[in-house]
Specification:
The chain contains two helices and no strands. The chain has about 50 residues and is an all-alpha fold. The chain has a domain of about 35 residues. Helix 1 packs antiparallel against helix 2. The longest helix has 19 residues. The chain is flat and about 25 Å long. The termini are far apart.
Length: about 50
Amino acid sequence: MAQWTGLEPATPGVTGRASQKVLIDLILRPLILKGFILNHQLFRLMQIEIN
């Protein structure tokens, strides 16, 4: 079974999506796992960032 590591390969020229993934992986995911941010709040944050 694969495990989530929070790491992704670097892709030159893709800074917006990569920085968003870093934000989610390093900052938001631990808060979600600890219960500080609810899943629907994360979904809203991601929709704002993507659009």
